[in-house]
């Protein structure tokens, strides 16, 4: 069942107001009749023109909307200077109301164009169906002179222009929830490495569980890739790295490691390099983003360590890759554990807890319960030390330095961090990142 209707009148010629007014009236009348039981939200998208032209267009739209009492509370006219701005505003309204099934009513010859905008601004969470807005012949003729026929592929330059328009609009948006904040470790020498752990502030993601500096997009979440890319651009500007030389692990909750410059595995939770200016990153929203730095051999790495990856030894697998590929000495490698869920909050079924208990009984609290509390940080530290990493070369502030804490519990600090454990499946993601300075 359709939850929202979008009527696209953005590019219809303003000099045909009488025809457009009748068209809009008939369309709304049909929606009203078909929606007696379940009335969808209705959004009318139009161009915000300058001066008297703008005032006249808004007046005819308002005139056409009068009399639709049953739709009154759910009908909104969205005027903007670009299609990207109008559509993004409507997306915000959809997300505020948790709506996902949308009918788009638009001129036939604008359909291919609209699909490109939708592909960029929405994810697979949303379902769209399209219906033709029956434009009168004079209006249709004007359209044919400026737009592609439906079914013809849009020229690549038109797609590029749409992408540029969206990017420029997103760049113009103010940051949300305060300034962008980066946590840094005193263990990693900043004259050789650029590194940090992000928090949730300073981006443009507006969905509550994803706001505001969400750095991961998937088909199951409402934040599209273009928004995540804009958040990354802002992070790169603040931190000083090149977003075009940015490589994030492809999470598999296992222990495979990618060596930069060699064949990339399909999935991997660790990544290492000795190339300058290349930024490596690992996500975390309860799982640990772990950073590795060898100031002697000038090599670095990043790993994503959830409970499965911790048990599979992803951190030591990353260390071993640095040793075998770049000749690093284990005793020179520095390891920093970033923000992650703490033993104060994190529970696993008893069967999984047994594996952590085997590493060290102190990794499990209330062991005899059905869902014991698990300390994945302690387990990671123990496995690193057993692998030869010096205790003083591991920064895990939950153990070593409460005064300079970067290993916060993500679940305990909703103002600072995202948490899958706390927020459910539509959760945001922060990252740990590191690179060797040029």
Tags for this model:
12 helices, Rossmann fold, 438 residues, CNF1/YfiH-like putative cysteine hydrolases, 2 domains, alpha/beta, five-stranded parallel beta sheet, elongated, 32% helix
How would you explain this protein's 3D organization?
With 438 residues, this protein is α/β, with parallel strands linked by helices. The protein folds into two domains: 4-135 and 158-171, Rossmann fold, CATH 3.40.50; 177-436, 4-Layer Sandwich (CNF1/YfiH-like putative cysteine hydrolases). 32% of the residues lie in helices and 19% in strands. The protein contains twelve helices and 18 strands. The strands form four sheets. Strands 9-10-13-12-14-17 form a six-stranded mixed sheet. Helix 1 runs parallel beside helix 2 and helix 4 (111-121) crosses helix 6. Keywords: Acetylation, Cytoplasm, Endoplasmic reticulum, Hydrolase, Immunity, Inflammatory response, Innate immunity, Metal-binding, Nucleus, Peroxisome, Phosphoprotein, Transferase, Zinc. Belongs to the purine nucleoside phosphorylase YfiH/LACC1 family. This is Purine nucleoside phosphorylase LACC1. InterPro entries: Cu_polyphenol_OxRdtase, Cu_polyphenol_OxRdtase_sf, Cytotoxic_necrot_fac-like_cat.
CATH 4th-level superfamily of the largest domain: CNF1/YfiH-like putative cysteine hydrolases
Q: What's the story with the biggest beta sheet?
A: 6 strands, mixed
Q: Given this structure, which CATH class of the largest domain is correct?
A: Alpha Beta
CA gyration radius, whole angstroms: 26 Å
Q: Compute the average pLDDT.
A: 87
Work out the strand percent.
15-25%
As for the number of domains, it is 2
Structural class: alpha/beta
For the termini, the CA-CA separation is 55 Å
